[in-house]
Structure formats: C-alpha cells, structure tokens
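Sample pair:
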Amino acid sequence: MRPCIRYLLIVLTLVAAAVGYKCLDPSVVPIFPRCPFRLLTGYLCPGCGSQRAIHHLLNLDLAGAWRMNPLFVIALPSLPLVLLLKPLSHRSPRCAQLRDLLLGYHASVVILVVILLFWVGRNIVA
C-alpha cells in the first residue's frame, strides 16, 4: 500500500472515531467496550473513564472529562508531541535530546510511578 493512501486511511479512521465518540456517549451506548479489569475485579484501572473523557472533550466539556479520568486529560496534550518527536529526532539533534528527555529511562520510571499512584489513589477515593 502506498504511504499516502495509508496515511489517508489512518486520518479517515481517526475522523470517523472522533465523530462516533462525539455523537455517542460511551456511558449510555452499549457498543463501546467495557474495561475487563473493572469487570473482573470491581476496581478502576488507570484507563477507566478514558472513553467517556474523550466524549466530553469532543463536546468541549473539560470539567466532565476531568471527572471521568483526570490523568488522561493531563496526558492527552503530550500525545502529538510524542508522536512527532520520533520522526523529527532523526533530522534534528535538539529533537533527539528532547525525545531522550521526555521518553528516556528516567522519564519512563516517573511516568510509571505517576500511573501507579493514580491507579491506587483513584481506588482509595472511589
């Protein structure tokens, strides 16, 4: 498959998913998958509420998204940066340094600790 067609299919898939999440509320419509961890244990995983948070963000309801999954709302803006850093790091030494800073070993440990603390904390409060 040619790269331009592949990227076009990716973009169209993302747009279709965004329209679906904007128009359909995952907490009401049963077609969205449920969290297997929560179904098995009754506890919230770090990703629980992300689908509902996407729905609220696409409907410009930041407070609603925050109630569903605050960690997701905080982490989401970094996603485009992370996705762009890999291809750009081959062209620019500064991008490579930034990639190593944000995605290196120490950053990964910090991210893992934050996720684990969020996971435990949201189940203690809930």
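The helical segments are 3-23, 36-41, 50-58, 62-68, 70-75, 78-89, 93-103, 105-125.
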